């Protein structure tokens, strides 16, 4: 392990895929002094990016993109071949979604590598930032078929909603390479980022990414299991997690119970790790249990709403606060809030929702949910108000007004997001998570 060096770099970099990870990687590497060309298959997205418009909600990203364009060091293209031709390093930031069998679908990665392999400059670097299963770097090296090109694994650990901050101030930078020289060249691209660099082999780097996400998922499922226990025995999970968090070995994060963990990565990455393990005859019972608890936790959130409404929700109007998979993002991929809403709709509930990050025309919104642009409208006439995402804005609502507008004072807070004292002062009948 070593700190990154402070030498000012100025390399030519290509980034393929301009989603949460790719655009953040491109804009941040540009802010470190490099010349970056970002490539994407989506024409509309490219047109917006060339105008400096960023469609995802990531604080600071739009500013970095516009600064890079103004400085003449950040460009966008649809042609992967032209992006890589002069690049000292090519970062693959392509989607690796869950395949039908639970494994990672590497189709986009393989397709792009086939496109660019004959056009990489001599002694090129192909860097996988996408989350890819163990053995991918070795397989891509074979696919590239050139002894002068090094394939290096450099997994990304950023969180959505804090992507720029996490990229520029990460807990660690992991570089997995078969040869020291290639690892050194990738580590140098991060000069200026104050973080430990862990150099390792590609297989270890690839597994680390899945190990980290699965660890976080397991920690959360443990807390959600404890929440269930607390409800049965009259204890308070928040008091317990506060005490646990004071123990430095446990650390005071990822301890908030909720309607299950979601997002574009934890669910697919736990599934992919299980798939990898199964393929080599290894059982990972803890990760399996974490996934199973997560399914149960989503069902428990639905059951709690149904019970709070007297046992059935068919024809019952519910006001939903939050649909994003967590606060701070507009991403709906694998959102537990959407899963809970979907099941309530299946049981016949009439759903009206508000989420501060959503306009109502986003892809991934469940068709059965009417999305409105103000929280008070969402709760009007509702039999229960259901808090599904922990937006801080929800604590600041005028809860007396919320309860006046709703048909009954029932609040189901699936994340303990709103201060329970505030709710009770307003006269709410509160159903939280993990409170006896
Ligand atoms: N979203 C996150 O917070 C994190 C994601 N990751 C990993 O990074 C990878 C990318 O994830 P996201 O950025 O969230 O994905 P995303 O879906 O936001 O972006 C992927 C981009 O790739 C483009 N694309 C797809 N196929 C293409 C092709 N053949 N040629 C050129 N462009 C193409 C898409 O148009 C899209 O803009 C995944 O492996 C994910 O697991 C890793 C850390 C954090
Ligand atoms: O590989 C990835 O894509 C990323 O996945 C997660 O980041 P992200 O998906 O942005 O979301 P998290 O902040 O990890 O939250 C995941 C889920 O856990 C839930 N959560 C989180 C924390 C908590 O205390 N309680 C809780 O229920 C969130 O609401 C959300 O549904 C990891 O935290 C990142 O390190 C990783 O890079």
From TrEMBL:
<feature type="binding site">
    <location>
        <position position="45"/>
    </location>
    <ligand>
        <name>NAD(+)</name>
    </ligand>
</feature>
<dbReference type="InterPro" id="IPR036220">
    <property type="entry name" value="UDP-Glc/GDP-Man_DH_C_sf"/>
</dbReference>
<dbReference type="Pfam" id="PF00984">
    <property type="entry name" value="UDPG_MGDP_dh"/>
</dbReference>
<dbReference type="GO" id="GO:0051287">
    <property type="term" value="F:NAD binding"/>
</dbReference>
<dbReference type="InterPro" id="IPR014026">
    <property type="entry name" value="UDP-Glc/GDP-Man_DH_dimer"/>
</dbReference>
<feature type="active site" description="Nucleophile">
    <location>
        <position position="265"/>
    </location>
</feature>
<dbReference type="InterPro" id="IPR036291">
    <property type="entry name" value="NAD(P)-bd_dom_sf"/>
</dbReference>
<dbReference type="Pfam" id="PF03721">
    <property type="entry name" value="UDPG_MGDP_dh_N"/>
</dbReference>
<dbReference type="InterPro" id="IPR001732">
    <property type="entry name" value="UDP-Glc/GDP-Man_DH_N"/>
</dbReference>
<feature type="binding site">
    <location>
        <position position="209"/>
    </location>
    <ligand>
        <name>substrate</name>
    </ligand>
</feature>
<feature type="binding site">
    <location>
        <position position="96"/>
    </location>
    <ligand>
        <name>NAD(+)</name>
    </ligand>
</feature>
<dbReference type="Pfam" id="PF03720">
    <property type="entry name" value="UDPG_MGDP_dh_C"/>
</dbReference>
<dbReference type="GO" id="GO:0006065">
    <property type="term" value="P:UDP-glucuronate biosynthetic process"/>
</dbReference>
<feature type="binding site">
    <location>
        <begin position="157"/>
        <end position="160"/>
    </location>
    <ligand>
        <name>substrate</name>
    </ligand>
</feature>
<feature type="binding site">
    <location>
        <position position="268"/>
    </location>
    <ligand>
        <name>NAD(+)</name>
    </ligand>
</feature>
<comment type="similarity">
    <text>Belongs to the UDP-glucose/GDP-mannose dehydrogenase family.</text>
</comment>
<dbReference type="InterPro" id="IPR014027">
    <property type="entry name" value="UDP-Glc/GDP-Man_DH_C"/>
</dbReference>
<keyword id="KW-0560">Oxidoreductase</keyword>
<feature type="binding site">
    <location>
        <position position="40"/>
    </location>
    <ligand>
        <name>NAD(+)</name>
    </ligand>
</feature>
<protein>
    <recommendedName>
        <fullName>UDP-glucose 6-dehydrogenase</fullName>
        <ecNumber>1.1.1.22</ecNumber>
    </recommendedName>
</protein>
<dbReference type="GO" id="GO:0003979">
    <property type="term" value="F:UDP-glucose 6-dehydrogenase activity"/>
</dbReference>
<feature type="binding site">
    <location>
        <position position="326"/>
    </location>
    <ligand>
        <name>substrate</name>
    </ligand>
</feature>
<feature type="binding site">
    <location>
        <position position="131"/>
    </location>
    <ligand>
        <name>NAD(+)</name>
    </ligand>
</feature>
<feature type="domain" description="UDP-glucose/GDP-mannose dehydrogenase C-terminal">
    <location>
        <begin position="319"/>
        <end position="420"/>
    </location>
</feature>
<dbReference type="InterPro" id="IPR017476">
    <property type="entry name" value="UDP-Glc/GDP-Man"/>
</dbReference>
<dbReference type="InterPro" id="IPR008927">
    <property type="entry name" value="6-PGluconate_DH-like_C_sf"/>
</dbReference>
<dbReference type="InterPro" id="IPR028357">
    <property type="entry name" value="UDPglc_DH_bac"/>
</dbReference>
<feature type="binding site">
    <location>
        <begin position="254"/>
        <end position="258"/>
    </location>
    <ligand>
        <name>substrate</name>
    </ligand>
</feature>
<dbReference type="GO" id="GO:0000271">
    <property type="term" value="P:polysaccharide biosynthetic process"/>
</dbReference>
<feature type="binding site">
    <location>
        <position position="262"/>
    </location>
    <ligand>
        <name>substrate</name>
    </ligand>
</feature>
<comment type="pathway">
    <text>Nucleotide-sugar biosynthesis; UDP-alpha-D-glucuronate biosynthesis; UDP-alpha-D-glucuronate from UDP-alpha-D-glucose: step 1/1.</text>
</comment>
<keyword id="KW-0520">NAD</keyword>
<feature type="binding site">
    <location>
        <position position="160"/>
    </location>
    <ligand>
        <name>NAD(+)</name>
    </ligand>
</feature>
<feature type="binding site">
    <location>
        <position position="333"/>
    </location>
    <ligand>
        <name>NAD(+)</name>
    </ligand>
</feature>
């Amino acid at each position: 392990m070593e700190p990154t060096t402070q030498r000012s770099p100025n390399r030519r970099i290509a980034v393929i895929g301009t989603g949460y990870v790719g655009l953040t990687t491109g804009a941040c590497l540009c802010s470190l002094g490099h010349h970056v060309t970002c490539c994407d298959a989506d024409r509309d997205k490219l047109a917006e990016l060339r105008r400096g418009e960023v469609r995802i909600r990531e604080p600071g990203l739009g500013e970095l993109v516009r600064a890079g364009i103004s400085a003449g060091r950040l460009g966008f293209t649809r042609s992967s071949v032209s992006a890589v031709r002069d690049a000292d390093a090519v970062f693959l930031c392509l989607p690796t979604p869950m395949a039908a069998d639970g494994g990672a679908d590497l189709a986009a990665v393989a397709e792009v590598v086939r496109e660019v392999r004959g056009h990489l400059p001599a002694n090129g670097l192909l860097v996988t930032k996408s989350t890819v299963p163990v053995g991918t770097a070795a397989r891509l090296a074979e696919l590239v078929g050139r002894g002068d090109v090094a394939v290096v694994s450099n997994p990304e650990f950023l969180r959505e909603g804090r992507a720029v901050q996490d990229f520029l101030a990460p807990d660690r930078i992991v570089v997995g390479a078969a040869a020291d020289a290639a690892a050194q060249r990738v580590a140098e691209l991060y000069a200026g980022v104050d973080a430990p660099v862990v150099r390792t082999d590609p297989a270890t780097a690839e597994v680390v990414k899945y190990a980290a996400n699965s660890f976080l998922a397991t920690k959360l499922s443990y807390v959600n299991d404890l929440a269930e226990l607390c409800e049965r025995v009259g204890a308070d999970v928040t008091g317990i997690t506060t005490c646990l968090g004071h123990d430095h070995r446990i650390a005071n994060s990822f301890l908030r119970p909720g309607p299950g963990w979601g997002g574009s990565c934890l669910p697919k990455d736990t599934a992919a790790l299980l798939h990898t393990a199964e393929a080599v005859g290894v059982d990972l019972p803890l990760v399996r249990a974490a996934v199973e608890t997560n399914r149960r936790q989503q069902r428990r959130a639905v059951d709690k709403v149904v019970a709070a409404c007297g046992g059935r929700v068919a024809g019952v109007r519910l006001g939903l606060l939050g649909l994003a998979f967590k606060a701070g993002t507009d991403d709906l991929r694998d959102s537990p809030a959407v899963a809970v809403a979907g099941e309530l709709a299946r049981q016949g509930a009439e759903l009206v929702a508000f989420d501060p990050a959503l306009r109502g025309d986003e892809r991934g919104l469940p068709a059965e949910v009417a999305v409105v642009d103000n929280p008070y409208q969402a709760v009007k006439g509702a039999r229960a108000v259901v808090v599904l995402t922990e937006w801080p804005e929800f604590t600041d609502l005028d809860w007396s007004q919320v309860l006046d507008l709703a048909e009954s004072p029932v609040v189901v807070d699936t994340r303990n997001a709103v201060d329970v004292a505030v709710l009770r002062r307003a006269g709410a009948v509160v159903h939280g998570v993990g409170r006896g």
